[in-house]
Amino acid sequence: MEPSCVVMQDISSAWLQLHGLQDWVGLLDPLDPTLRVEILKYGRFSEATYDAYDPSCGSSCRYRCASLLKEVGLRDSGYEVTRYLYATMAELPRPPWPLSLLPKGSWLQRLLRLDSWSEDSNWMGFVAVSGDEETRRLGRREIVVAWRGTVEPSEWFKDAQLGMEPLKGGGVSGANVEQGFQSVYTSHGRFTTLSASEQVKTEIRRLVDTYGKEDSWKEGISLTLTGHSLGGALALLSAHDAAASIPGLSHVSVISFGAPQVGDAAFMEELSKKGVKVLRVVVKGDEVPKLPGIIDSLYEHAGVKLDLDMDEEDLMGQLDVAACHSLKTYLRLVESTKS
């Protein structure tokens, strides 16, 4: 990754618009150049979760909290990582058909690999907070939660158990979400005495308490969650969780990349009631955002979609599912989208 030297314009007067106050009306087609810069910022936080992940040991990160952003080329991002997040993998179902029946080397065979997760815990991302200079630029203190997506194209799919269950927490009645995603978010394991849900909420509360006492910013403390693929699903679940249970947040938004569907219409309504704003960045031709809805029509997407077009030239002749779903493809297309 190229080092990021971020010296950007003051956006304090436009921040709420850029984070969906009016659902991004007038900002997406064509893509507003200031919004493009902000989308890329969160996309690079998502990318950092891949760059920092240690593939030889799913429960660890390559770097210490204090040096992570520096090591992945985001030294000048204006944020400080304050906590790492881990998730537990529950027992996962195997597909009802032999993998040997699929064409060897096909994208679906790669998608259904069952050997890529640790059974106990996986390093899944981090919580960060804006420093004083970035806070002045934004006009508010911002907490960012970045969730890791799939190291293999299949990691989210094998946890998508293709069935809904009631949304946990917050006294919600009638809302249902994908049971596999919720399991990743709420399960405990041998090495994770706190679930991912408990970890992220504990840290957000700590930061709200700390900066709520120290800061004099009239716009308060905002929360932005980001992630790619499975990370986008976890971002949506944790956005609702935080908005429903943590007072003191002035605004909660999600900027996701290639995220699958997470819940039903009642869950989408819950997000709206809680004031959570969602911008989904989606590459046309990426199959992951269509799932699990192509199997179960009860699933719906939240928020507003930013479509990105990709042709054979963009793909350098590799027109396949993996290329369409790659976060690097997403970020390249955001960068090249015409204003």
TrEMBL record:
<keyword id="KW-0934">Plastid</keyword>
<keyword id="KW-0378">Hydrolase</keyword>
<feature type="domain" description="Fungal lipase-type">
    <location>
        <begin position="144"/>
        <end position="293"/>
    </location>
</feature>
<dbReference type="GO" id="GO:0016042">
    <property type="term" value="P:lipid catabolic process"/>
</dbReference>
<keyword id="KW-0150">Chloroplast</keyword>
<dbReference type="Pfam" id="PF01764">
    <property type="entry name" value="Lipase_3"/>
</dbReference>
<dbReference type="InterPro" id="IPR029058">
    <property type="entry name" value="AB_hydrolase_fold"/>
</dbReference>
<keyword id="KW-0443">Lipid metabolism</keyword>
<keyword id="KW-0442">Lipid degradation</keyword>
<protein>
    <recommendedName>
        <fullName>Fungal lipase-type domain-containing protein</fullName>
    </recommendedName>
</protein>
<dbReference type="GO" id="GO:0004620">
    <property type="term" value="F:phospholipase activity"/>
</dbReference>
<keyword id="KW-0809">Transit peptide</keyword>
<dbReference type="InterPro" id="IPR002921">
    <property type="entry name" value="Fungal_lipase-type"/>
</dbReference>
<comment type="similarity">
    <text>Belongs to the AB hydrolase superfamily. Lipase family.</text>
</comment>
<dbReference type="GO" id="GO:0009507">
    <property type="term" value="C:chloroplast"/>
</dbReference>
